[in-house]
Amino acid sequence: MKRRLFAVFSFVAVLFALGLGLGYSSASAKTQQTYTIGTDVTFPPFEFANDQNKYVGIDMDLMRAIAKDQGFKVNIKPLGFNAAVQATQSGQIDGVIAGMSITKERAATFDFSNPYFTSGVVMAVAKNSKITDLNALKGKRVAVKTGTSGADYANSIKNKYGFKVVTFDDSNNMYEDVTTGNSVACFEDSPVMRYAIQQGSKLKIVTKPAESGSYGFAVKKGQNKALLTAFNRGLANLKKNGQYDKITERYLGKDSTAKPADDRSFLGLLKQNKGALWDGFVETLWLTVVSIFFATLFGVIVGLMGVVPSKFINGASTTLIYIFRGLPLLVLALFIYTGIPSLTGQKIPAFVAGVITLMFNEGAYIAAFVKGGINAVDHGQMEAARSLGLPFGKSMRKVILPQGIKIMVPSFINQFIITLKDTSILSIIGLLELTQTGKIIIARNLEGFKVWTIVAVIYLVVITLLTWLSNWVQRRTKI
Amino acid sequence: MSETKAKIKVDNLVKNYGDNAVLKGINLEVKNNEVVVIIGPSGSGKSTLLRTLNKLEEPTGGSIVVDGYDIAKPDTDINKVRENIGMVFQHFNLFNNLTVGENITLAPLELKKEAPKQATEHAHSLLQMVGLESKFDARVQSLSGGQQQRVAIARALAMKPDVMLFDEPTSALDPEMVGDVLAVMKDLAKQGMTMVVVTHEMGFAKEVADRVIFVDDGQILEEGTPDELFGHPKHPRLQDFLNKILNV
After folding, report:
1. Which segments constitute the ABC transporter domain (chain B) (predicted)?
2. Do residues A206 and A222 share a domain?
C-alpha cells in the first residue's frame, strides 16, 4: 500500500529534525522524554505536508495529541514508509506511525499498539453514476492505483465480476479517470477515498469496506515498552474524551467545516503553495545547474575521447555514448537509484543519483555533438598544426577546439534546455523538484489540472529566460 | 653539413590503404639545398609520398630518414622532427580562429618559447618577404587564396625549418594568383632552402628544380634533371603524361 520513498526530502528532513532535536533535548532534557517517530512522506489523509509544509493528517494529529496527553515529546521524521520501518527495526528511531496495517508477518518483528484505525477497500463511482454494486461492473473499466490494496482487491475479483482493470500511478489521475467517465469506478482504501471526496472529488462511495484491516503504531519487538503503553493509554483517553473523533472527522468528514474553505482558484492555489513551489523551483534549478556542470564535464571528456588518435579510446567513447544515449532516462534513473545500492549495499542520496543520471544521459548527447563539432572542423587544420610540430593536445587546444566550440554552441544551449526539462523525470526517484512538488500538492488537494497548469507555466517561464540568456551568450560569442 | 649529404633518405617505402597499395617501394634521396619536384598523374601516389615525409601518412613499410631521424620508427619524437620540416598545403589550412600574425607566431611561441616581441618581429619580416606586410592583424577569411598561401609559407618558415614540403601549393588558386606564390617559392629556392614540391607547374619545375621525379602507380618511373625529363623523356608513360599536360 505504501510505495514511494522521498529520500532526499527525508534526508533534509532528518537533518532538520536532528538539528531541532538536539536544540530541544538540551533545553528540556530534565522533564520530558522525547521520542523520534518515523512516518511516510505523503499518505493523505494520514500524513502529508500542509500548505505551510507542516506535517498533518490523522496519524500526525493523533500522535501529537497522545504525546500531549501522556506528557512526552515527539520528533516526527517523514522518512518514507520503507525507510521508517527499517529505521525502527534497526533502532535508529523509536517507532513508526504510517498507516501501517497490523499483520502476522509484521508482528514477528514489531510490537503493535492497539488498532487506532480500521480501514478497508471501498468502491467509488462518479456522483451521477447509477452503479451501486459490483455486479453492475460487468464488461466495464475500473481504475486503480498501483501497489494499493485497492488494486490487489480489484484484481482478485475482476474475473468473478467480469470487469477490466486500468492502473494509474497516482490517485488524482485515477479519480479523474472516473469523473471523466473513462472508467466507471475505482477501488481505494476507505479513508483515502473519503479524504478525496472531502477535498472535492466528484465521487461517491457505494460499497462497504471489504478486506478490512487495522492500522497500528509499531515499535521494535521487545523495545520501547513505555512508549507503547503510553500510546495505548493516550489512545484510550482520546477516544473517551471525543478528541479521536474530532481528529478523524477533520480529515474524513463530509463537510470540511473544520477547515476554512480553501481558495481553489489559480491565484489561491499559487498563494497557498508558494512556499512549496518555490522550494521545488529552486531544487529544479539547482539540479539543472549541477547536472549541466557534470554532464558538460563528462560529455567533453567522452567527446574528446572520441577524437584522440587511439582506436581503443575511440571505441570506449563510442560505447559510452551508445549505452547512455540508448537507455531511457527513466530506466537509467531507477537503475542508478535502486539498482546500484542493491548491488553495492551502499545507499545513494536521491539528489546524487539524479545528478549521476543526468550526467550520463545528457553527457552522452553532449559527447556526441562535441565529437561531431570537432570532426566538423576541417581536417586540414589539424594537419597544419601537427606539421608545424605542435603535439596533438596543443593542436586541439589552440586550433581545433576554439573552432569546434563555435559549432557546438547552439547544441549546448539546446542540451541545457533539455536538461532542465529532463529534471522532471527525476521525480520518479522522489527528488522534491518542481514536478514532484506538483505531485505532492495534488496528492493533498486533488486539483490536478490547475496545479499542473501552474507547474507548466513555471517551466515555460524558466525556459524562456534560459533561451533569452542563451541567445545573448550566442550573440556575444559570434565574433 | 656537406652539400652532398642526404637531407632526406627514403628506402623501400611502402604505403597501403587496406588492400590498396598506394606506394610500392619508393627509394629517394634529397640532398641539402636541393629542390626536387615530383610530378605525376592524379592518383599516382605523389601527394601520399610527400605526406609520408613528415608522417602525416603513416608508412606501412620501409624507412624514412630525415635529418638523421628515422621517422618510420614508432619511438622517434615526430613532433621534434616536424619542427624542422615546413609543410605547405594545397588548401592553405590557415588557422581560421587566429589572425594572420597569430597564425605565424603560434608555433614559435608554443614550441620554441620565443619571446613574443621577437616572434612578432620575425613574423613581420616574413610577411614582408612574402609581400603581405600590411596584413599582420588581418583575419584569415579576409585574404584572397593567393594571399593565404603566402601567409601559409610564412607560417611554415617561422619555425626556421631546413626542409620545406609543398603539396600542390598552386592547384587551388585562381590563375592570376599563381605567379605571386611561385615567386615566393623561387626566392626560397635561391636562398638555398631544401625543397620537395609536388606540382603541376611545369614551368616552375623547369626553371627551379635541380631534379624532377616522375611518379606513377606508386613507383618512381623516371628521375633526372628538368632537361632530361622534359627534353628527353624515356618512359612511355612519362611521354604520355607530358603530352597530355603540355598540349592542352
Report:
1. 8-242
2. no
Range of the domain at A446: 270-477
**Mode of pairing for the β-strands spanning A218-220 and A110-112:** antiparallel
Rounded to 5 degrees, φ, ψ at A424 are -60, -30
How many contacts, defined by CB atoms under 8 Å, are there between A and B?
A: 65
Helix (H) or strand (E) holding A144: strand A141-145
pTM exceeds 0.90: no
For chain A, the residues whose C-beta falls within 8 A of a C-beta of chain B are 378, 380-381, 383-391, 394, 398-399, 402-403
Rounded to a whole number of angstroms, the distance from the CA of B50 to the nearest CA of chain A is 12
A311, A387, A392, A399, best to mutate vs chain B, most B CBs in 10 Å: A387
* Contact present, A25 and A448 (Cβ < 8 Å): no
ipTM of the complex: 0.92
Contact A388 B107 (CB under 8 A): yes
| Chain A residues closer than 8 Å to B56 by CB | 383, 386-387
Place of cell 460499497: A207
A331 belongs to a structural domain: yes
Does residue A177 share a domain with residue A226?
A: no
Closest residue to B111, CB basis, from A383, A387, A389? A389
- Interchain contact, A388 vs B96, CB within 8 Å: no
Question: Are A360 and A329 part of one and the same domain?
Answer: yes
Per-residue DSSP letters for B140-195?
GGGS-HHHHHHHHHHHHHTT--SEEEEESTTTTS-HHHHHHHHHHHHHHHHTT-EE
Nearest CA in chain A to B111: A390
Q: Residue for cell digits 551508445?
A: A322
Give pLDDT tens digits for A19-31: 444 444 444 444 6
Q: Give pLDDT tens digits along chain A (479 positions).
A: 343 444 444 444 444 444 444 444 444 444 678 999 999 877 888 988 877 778 899 999 999 999 999 999 999 988 778 778 888 888 888 999 998 988 888 899 999 999 999 888 999 999 999 999 999 999 999 999 887 888 889 999 999 999 999 988 878 889 989 998 899 999 998 998 888 888 888 899 999 888 778 899 999 999 999 999 999 999 999 999 999 999 998 888 765 444 545 678 888 888 888 888 999 999 999 999 999 999 999 999 999 999 998 999 999 999 999 999 999 999 999 888 878 877 887 778 889 999 999 999 999 999 999 999 999 999 999 999 999 999 999 999 999 999 999 889 889 989 999 999 999 999 888 788 999 888 878 877 778 889 999 999 999 999 998 888 888 887 876 54
Coil, helix or strand for B118? helix
* pLDDT 10s digits, A111-136: 999 999 988 899 999 999 999 999 99
Q: Is residue A23 part of a domain?
A: no
Beta bridge partners of A141: A164
How far, in Å, CA of A275 to CA of A288, rounded?
20
- Number of domains forming the structure of chain A: 3
Strands B61-66 and B85-88, sheet pairing: unpaired
Chain B positions with Cβ closer than 8 Å to A: 54, 56, 79-83, 85-87, 89, 91, 93-98, 106-107, 110-111, 152, 155-156, 159
CATH of the domain at A65: 3.40.190.10
- The greatest distance separating any two alpha carbons of chain B, rounded to the nearest whole angstrom, comes to 55
Do residues B190 and B129 make contact, with C-beta atoms less than 8 angstroms apart?
A: no
- C-beta atoms of A389 and B79 within 8 A: yes
Radius of gyration of chain B (CA): 18
Q: Collapse the DSSP code of B115 into the 3-class scheme (helix H, G, I; strand E, B; otherwise coil) and give the result.
A: coil
Question: Are A403 and B85 a contacting pair at CB < 8 A?
Answer: no
